[in-house]
Amino acid sequence: MDDAACTAFLQWALPRLRMRWPGYRKVRKQVCKRIGGRLRDLGLPDADAYRQYLAQHPSEWSKLDGFCPITISRFYRDVDVFGHIDRAVLPELARSAMQRRPPLVRAWSIGCSGGEEPYTLSLIWDLSTAARSPGADFLIHATDVNETALDRARKACYPGTCLSTLPPPWLELAFERIDGRYCLRTRHRSRVTFALQDIRQGTPEGHFDLILCRNLVLTYFDEDLQRELLPRILARLSPGGAFVIGRKERIPSGLPLIAEQPRLGIYRAPS
Fold this sequence. Notes:
- The protein has twelve helices and ten strands.
- With 271 residues, it is α/β, with parallel strands linked by helices.
- It has a seven-stranded mixed sheet with strand order 6-2-1-7-8-10-9, with helices on one face. Strands 3-5-4 form a three-stranded antiparallel sheet.
- Helix 1 (3-13) packs across helix 3 (28-42) and helix 6 (79-97) packs across helix 7.
- It is globular, with a radius of gyration of 20 Å.
- The termini are far apart.
């Protein structure tokens, strides 16, 4: 299926899945490749035939939905965002945690893909925050709808391209080279747990001091679905906790959040 045909198909299909075409415009090739493979598996000649197949086989819509998650990520994605988390967000959360027993900071990474985001948080804590916050601990819960991506995350071995924005000393400190890939050392993996979960279907139990929902809900889901999901997500955010979205994303009006660094997509829940 060529690009023009796939674009037309996605512009037709995505709204029926409660998703937004503008979010997929620049990353559509990943989804188009999956759909093209599905056409070959089904023996269908083109997108029009696939539309007819969807009409005749309603269960296929869930298969199509599974082709839509985008798995593009890297460590320390948006250097200034994670720099602010390093300098300001995590140290403040750690100070607050010291008033509790146990003195634990909990984070949730939504749509964690191959693990680059939650492992970045782990590295920031281990190589920076922990030394300034003795006595506090940090646990990260990471969720994604894609089991293949989660399997990659659990293995924690990456090509060099995923590490290009990582602070250079951290590469040697935190990774070991195995079979041409960079594998995260075990001690930096231990504070991260991964779970298969569709944010549209549910949220983890408990509350979190830091929630990252970057380049997912506010990029790919339609506005009505955003308004349904964001209150559920924010219900898991502890008072005074930090909520981080993508730099190019915008928070809908009416949500109980305080802008801390809106240019970086960083907000706070009221205390």
